[in-house]
Design brief:
Strands 5-4-1-7 form a four-stranded antiparallel β-sheet, covered by helices on one side. A four-stranded antiparallel β-sheet has the order 6-8-9-10, with helices on one face. Strands 2-3 form a two-stranded antiparallel sheet. A hairpin with a 2-residue loop joins β2 (about 70) and β3. The chain is an alpha+beta fold and about 170 residues long. The protein has a domain at about 15-60 and about 110-160. It is built from one helix and ten strands. Helix content is about 30%, strand content about 20%. The longest helix has about 50 residues, at about 10-60.
């Protein structure tokens, strides 16, 4: 007598249906997890970029600006990424002897990033006078539960916000 090892069509179809149902249940929670990790990663990158800016201002002994740059000028579109540069000439413009120190990659295009200033400028003593504020990062919607924020104070200290229910300006 000959025996055949393998699956019948009914067994294979049953296995596929069970796998599809489990995938359908798991997919939404994986999306939430991805959004949460993306927001945490992005706000950490922004925080580290601002800390680098402050450290470089103190090290170089000159004003250092961190902002989104388009055409060598600071713009308000924070999603395009943040450029850190020495700002010895005209404020918020890469000109003359200014040097680009660091630039982040663009952030997710569907996310919302809002800041109440055009740029963050650190003085040679590390102060952020006049450019202090709260930068908010909201993944996908302006009131996402995974939204994060960082606060830059007058003294140039950069810290994570402990506030719940952060809402971004669109």
């Amino acid at each position: 007598m000959k025996t055949h090892a393998g699956f019948t069509l009914i067994e294979l179809m049953t296995t596929l249906v069970v796998a599809m149902v489990l995938t359908g249940i798991a997919a939404p929670s994986l999306t939430e997890l991805h959004v949460s990790y993306r927001a945490k990663s992005a706000i950490k990158t922004i925080q580290q970029t601002f800390q680098l800016s402050r450290n470089q201002a103190i090290s170089y002994g000159c004003r250092v600006t961190a902002c989104p740059v388009k055409g060598n000028r600071c713009v308000r579109d924070w999603k395009i990424g943040i450029t850190v540069f020495t700002d010895r000439g005209e404020l918020n413009v890469i000109d003359g002897a200014d040097e680009i120190i660091f630039a982040t990659s663009p952030f997710h295009p569907d996310d919302i990033i809002s800041y109440n200033r055009l740029a963050v400028r650190f003085q040679p003593d590390g102060l952020a006078s006049g450019t202090n504020g709260t930068l908010k990062y909201c993944p996908l919607t302006s009131d996402n539960k995974h939204s994060k924020a960082i606060i830059i104070n007058q003294a140039g200290r950069v810290r994570f916000s402990t506030e719940d229910n952060i809402k971004c300006d669109s």
